[in-house]
């Protein structure tokens, strides 16, 4: 057998095992930080646990210098190994271009898909209104991390930095576990 075939079989086995182990996402914390309070500020940023099975994330950032015509976003997924370390993805994209042509960056589409159905950040630039993520349920995120693209269990940090006009204006960190 060729080494390529053996590698392919090992990869398929790994993906199958990863899919079998990653079964439930649980939000553990969210931190929203405005890095330029004259440009933007978070009105709210919180997790709410309604009952044992329903928990959601909500945030609203007020934009003070609209319209915003140049936006870049850096998304990174980190996994906890004696501190949070990079895990698979760390990308920076021109959000205006990618929102106009989503097929140009499938990794961005995956991460944006984690919250886009519960957000008003669905159109391309310019952004001329406050931005919000409203009641993003953990069950929606769970589907993405266990069925769409399975991940191994562990503690994770989804870190995002939001740049306007090439200046980092805000950071949103969402902590979660896969068990």
TrEMBL record:
In the UniProt record, the signal sequence range is 1-23
**Keywords of this protein's UniProt record, alphabetized?**
Signal
Record keywords: Signal included? yes
Checking InterPro entries in the record gives:
DUF1091
Q: Name one Pfam family in it.
A: DUF1091
Record carries keyword Signal: yes
User: What is this protein's record name?
Assistant: Uncharacterized protein
């Amino acid at each position: 057998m060729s080494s390529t075939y053996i590698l392919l079989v090992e990869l398929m086995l790994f993906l199958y095992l990863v899919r079998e182990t990653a079964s439930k996402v649980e939000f553990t914390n969210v931190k929203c930080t405005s890095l330029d309070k004259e440009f933007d500020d978070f009105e709210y940023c919180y997790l709410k646990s309604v009952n044992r099975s329903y928990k959601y994330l909500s945030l609203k950032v007020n934009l003070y210098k609209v319209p915003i015509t140049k936006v870049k976003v850096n998304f990174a997924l980190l996994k906890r190994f004696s501190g949070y370390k990079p895990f698979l993805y760390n990308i920076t994209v021109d959000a205006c271009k990618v929102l106009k042509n989503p097929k140009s960056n499938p990794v961005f589409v995956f991460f944006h898909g984690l919250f886009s159905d519960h957000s008003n950040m669905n159109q391309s630039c310019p952004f001329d209104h406050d931005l919000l993520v409203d009641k993003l349920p953990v069950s929606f995120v769970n589907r993405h991390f266990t069925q769409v693209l399975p991940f191994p269990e562990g503690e994770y940090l989804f870190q995002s930095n939001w740049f306007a006009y090439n200046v980092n204006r805000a950071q949103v960190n969402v902590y979660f576990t896969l068990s």
